[in-house]
């Protein structure tokens, strides 16, 4: 009945339209009953999506095929529409040269050192650097490693060296690399990627190498200085004594107040659980910010309640993998400098840490690496993309890597890339979000262990998500929904565009898999 009505209505309307007006008919005029059924059935969340779709053949042919449909459920209609229309942001086949866009975007994210006005929260910088973009208008620690990956393959080696100069200078000035270049970030760091950043340098000057190694050793001491104050509780600052006496690391913050940049949010979170000491809760929130995963079910007792956070009780697999990488690179650097005693010491520290990771953070029956809970003295139940870190730094065995690959394929692989976790909590570092750094860590780690097919598949899915979203929005985003292949959500602030680490990982992946750009 509805289709008959639309046919008559469109025929009647056409009798009153001039020949020129007929050529300007709207989609509702052209596709009548099909248009109505798609829109009223909410086949696409935004009604403008189908209104902007481009037919792949004549309207008459499409309507004839539509009338032959035997069923009209939502799935059938969506399949029919996608087969007969180019739908914006979904199967729109407009060519997008992502690498060209990113290369053109880099200059807009470069900042020059400036004189800091009195009272400003900005920290002084030594050399030009690249910011993430959006609300993140300063240099950030772990973001920058993934930005550097893209700068290197995009012919910006001078900027790579410039940013390494900045990070080296910050360690010399503050003893560590702060979360970001603001005074309110000085009480914490972020996942320690400086050792891996140095792998990207092409500077072979001996004096520069010596200065950077000294900075790397000083950063290591900052992360390990809690070893000097361990008490019966078995933890101090960023160091935790495991049951067998091995020292591993945790995230921490030297302050126990609300974060300057999220003061109101932290005060509100503290009010949600009056039974907890606010100072302890603030420390956990700050430590969560140091982790880079702010916030995630990894740190929560109750995945649905941020106020249940207890980051400092967790010994994380990602942090300890990065500490292993730092120990290895210090050992190598000392060997190159002829300091055999230092080389032997740090090689032994790396060996001990790897054994502790296997003992406490590896779950062979589940085929995954996990975080370890100091309170329950056992691995946490949260599966996350951090399980790929030991592969990324070379700390896994071949059987462990094969098991992790199966777990990733079965539980973390989504249509649009790698899931952050399997939990849906509303926090930004949980499902359905996927993040550029975690894609790279998994892809590089899997590829290093001979899992080339899975690595490439993650890259293909992720780049398809980034490209489709760019085609629809014209933006490179901080995070993505890898279930629906659209902008990500959750967290304390709106999704940001720019975006440093997404640009860097996209460029690095397209350099590794150039055929994916054409696809």
Task: Describe the overall structure.
- With 519 residues, the chain is mainly α.
- It is 50% helix and 7% strand.
- The chain contains 21 helices and 17 strands.
- Strands 5-6-7 form a 3-stranded antiparallel sheet. A 3-stranded antiparallel sheet has the order 8-11-12. Strands 15-16-17 form a 3-stranded antiparallel sheet.
- A hairpin with a 4-residue loop joins strand 11 and strand 12.
- The longest helix is centred in the last third of the chain and has 22 residues, at 340-361.
- The protein is globular and about 80 Å long.
- Mean pLDDT is 93; it is low at 7-22.
Topology record:
Elements: H1 2-15, H2 19-22, H3 27-40, H4 47-51, E1 54-55, H5 59-67, H6 74-84, E2 85-86, H7 98-109, E3 110-111, E4 129-130, H8 141-153, H9 157-174, H10 194-198, H11 206-224, E5 235-236, E6 239-241, E7 247-249, H12 263-271, H13 278-291, E8 314-315, H14 317-336, H15 340-361, E9 362-363, E10 368-369, E11 372-373, E12 378-379, H16 389-392, H17 398-412, E13 413-414, E14 417-418, E15 433-435, H18 436-448, H19 452-473, E16 479-481, E17 486-487, H20 500-512, H21 515-518
Antiparallel strand pairs: 1-2, 3-4, 5-6, 6-7, 8-11, 9-10, 11-12, 13-14, 15-16, 16-17
